[in-house]
Amino acid sequence: MSTKIIILWVIAVILVTAIAISLSFFMHKPAEPVEYKNKIPMQKTEVGGRIKLPEPRYESETSVEEALSKRRSIRDYSGENLTLDEVSQLLWAAQGITAPWGGRTAPSAGALYPLELYVVVGDVEGIDKGVYKYSREEHELEKVKEGDIRAELADAAGGQECVRDAAIDIVFTAVYERTTSKYKTPVYEERTGASYLRGIRYVHMEAGHAAQNVYLQAVSLDLGTVVIGAFMDDRVKELVNAGEQENPLYIMPVGRKG
Q: In a designed cystine with 254, which of 115, 129, 161, 225 is the match (CB 3.0 to 4.6 A)?
């Protein structure tokens, strides 16, 4: 074998070895951490700023019958974040618009819709802590208050830990006048001596419908929730910056099941 052929052979072996080493390096290069790849940038929103919610989905693998059979009040949460998609789905289930004329997911006497929703955000991917009001018409959140108030809200609810530990707390309020302006018939209860307008009864019915929708949607999302009705009304109203005519009816903590 000539010297020239030997030299070419050696060069070829060196090149093949170099290529093999390079490929080995790239094939065994450590992967970036999953949490880095999937990290969602925090969207900082000032008071008065709005966040467009993702479009809700209208189908799932969970049937109504399955959701009903699995519905439970869950008070223990893992502390993990919720996604903005999940928040969007929960709010849509409670009061989302489902018809061109404004019909919603929950029935309302006279289609007067007295309910308002606030979301106390603690741990949601992509948005900062604070209190947000749900706009049904635009399917958006409007920030009405800065900071994490879950602990204060829990204190206002008699120290119930689930309110503090949930990723979010949905606060239902109602403007009674929207319904009582039409339904003015007085209702008198002999047992208690209480007297009120029938429209108030209708508002409470509607709150129950909307809360059950949240329960069933939470089942579909594999989340936990519970309805809280024991709290200091004025304090809750102050904490979420509710309007003067709004009356708190429910707090619904929501989180991943612990």
A: 225
How do the domains of the chain map onto residue ranges? 1-30, 41-256
pTM of the predicted model, to two decimals?
A: 0.83
CA 231 to chain centre: 21
What is the per-residue pLDDT across 226-252, written as a single tens digit (0 to 9) for each?
Answer: 999 999 999 999 999 999 999 999 999
41-256 has which fold? NADH Oxidase (3.40.109)
Is residue 59 packed enough to be buried (19+ CB in 10 Å), middle (13-18) or exposed (0-12)? Answer: exposed
In percent, how much of the chain has pLDDT > 70?
84
Q: Letter for the amino acid at 40?
A: I
Across-strand partners of 196?
187
End-to-end CA distance of the chain: 75
